[in-house]
Known about the structure:
Elements: H1 5-13, H2 16-23, E1 28-30, E2 33-36, E3 48-51, E4 56-59, E5 65-67, H3 68-76, H4 80-91, H5 105-128, H6 134-142, H7 147-152, E6 156-158, H8 164-171, H9 176-181, E7 185-187, E8 193-195, E9 200-206, E10 212-219, E11 228-230, E12 243-244, H10 246-256, E13 258-261, H11 265-273, E14 279-282, H12 289-298, E15 301-304, H13 310-325, E16 330-332, H14 341-358, H15 363-372, H16 381-397, H17 401-415, H18 419-426, H19 451-462, H20 481-492, H21 501-508, H22 513-521, H23 528-534, H24 536-556, H25 564-583
Parallel strand pairs: 13-14, 13-15, 15-16
Antiparallel strand pairs: 1-2, 2-3, 3-4, 4-5, 6-9, 7-8, 9-10, 10-11, 12-14
Amino acid sequence: MTSSPIIELIREKLDIVEIVREYVPSLKKAGRNYKANCPFHNEKTPSFTVNPDKQIFHCFGCSTGGDVFKFVMDIEGLTFPEAARKLAGKAGVEFGEERAHVLTPEDRERLELKKMMTFAAAFYHKALFSPAGEKAKLYLGERRLSKATVEKFELGWAPAGGSALMDELKAKGWSSDLALKGGLITEREGGRVADTFRGRVMFPIRNQSGDTIAFGGRVLDPEGIPKYLNSPETVLFSKRRTLYGLHEALPQIRKTGRLLLLEGYMDVIGAHQHGVDWAVAPLGTNLTVEHSALIKRYAKDTVVMFDDDRAGIQASVRAAEIFMEAGLYVRLANLGTGQDPDEYLNQYGREEFEKQLTGALDPMDFRVGLFFKNRQTPPTAQEKAKAIAILLETVAKQGDEILKSEWVKTLASRFGVDEASVLKQLRKAPHQPQGREHRGAPARTTVEIPSIERGFIQLLLRDPALAEQAAGLVPEDFSSPVARKFFLAFMELPAGDRPRAATALAARFPEDSALIMELAVADIGGEIAAAAAQNAAGAARMLKKFSLQRRWTEMKTRMGSLTGAELEEFRKLSAELKSSAKDI
């Protein structure tokens, strides 16, 4: 990781626990560390750990980890200079210009892409107020959006020609390769390129920090398809991890802990215009596990209100199950009028809309209500059995035992059947497959290191002063190549850098960064724990003894072919091992 006097000053002034808690309010003290459910993947059992002594974090579930800069980079999708600038503001440190700090080629490209996307948003917004954007302005007027709202969300218009934006980008010095990477232009047959968005009302998509990372465009031509078009996946934009309107909604969500999940751009924009400024939307009706993990960082009370049609209702039910798998509580709302939320707000106003939100139902009540909705005659026994069997599949996935019990009571009461029968049927329902809590987490690579060597490396990372006790050790005293590599790198660090050894080693060996962070935050166990806790020098002697034993064993297996010098070495080893047995 990049280092400089300014970066070190920021590190000194900030506490990683407090920074992480801004994003993960559930972070709680657990021994010498702090723990919470990981904000980077979906899990039910907390494996995300923050170590205040080393000022690092590590997740034992998905293996992500690093220092405070890495945390902010990952959680907000920032480059190192951007994260450093943000943290400098929190620390009260003057950061200066980005060019004064080391930038990787990837950092430079991301920063250039963000500048290009910002320019594109301004280009589309300006085009909206040109003569060519008149039709788009009429459409937004018909949707009853005020000029202030149009400005707040920086709505725009993509000219119908094939190269209006591309020409402007080239004039500003941006290459077509970069524009392709940003999804602003598209390559066509024959190698020709053209603007991705043409003849569409434009919706800039922003990340939590307010950076424009992608676009959505709505076609106005009734014959045009698709009706809505989103930017392709890029290094800045992942549809699965982005919620439209989150940047605008975050202040209110953080203040109240509540979040309203709507279906589309216009629903969110209309809600904000009417003061319902905690509304966001996935890009399409498909909520993902990554979305639920993002929402979990900020909201305790979530209401889902998708469109009042069959597809919207089905999407609401799917979303509820995803929230449930993430250990979140959610309620479902349905307007029941056939209107989109923005249409309802325009007709009835915020007060009536909020009443609909207040009446949002628990997912099981919602689904049972759908079954009985508009039913003229009582369900037959077979209809009851079929409906209960389907609903019990959801009950079986519920991790909260109290909710599970209440849902069983709800089913028995609403369908007029015996509760014991429902419970008996529940035991037959398909259960949640094991291991789902880490879905989406990258596979972990297990590195085999003998427990004593693993524990000794942990001690070095925890207590740099132990380096004095390890002065008699050499890398060859470690049987594991990985432990040998870590030990050598640690001993090569200047004394002043050793308190941040975990971060330094992770930067030097990025392929092993997850393991290094794990070693730095994990509790020390195995055969070294007791000895090292009482006598670090004794632990070092134990390592040396094992090293001598390995050498002695290796030489003994080829005793008949040893040279004279090797025989002398063998005799000395035998004597040393006999002597060390008395010392340890």
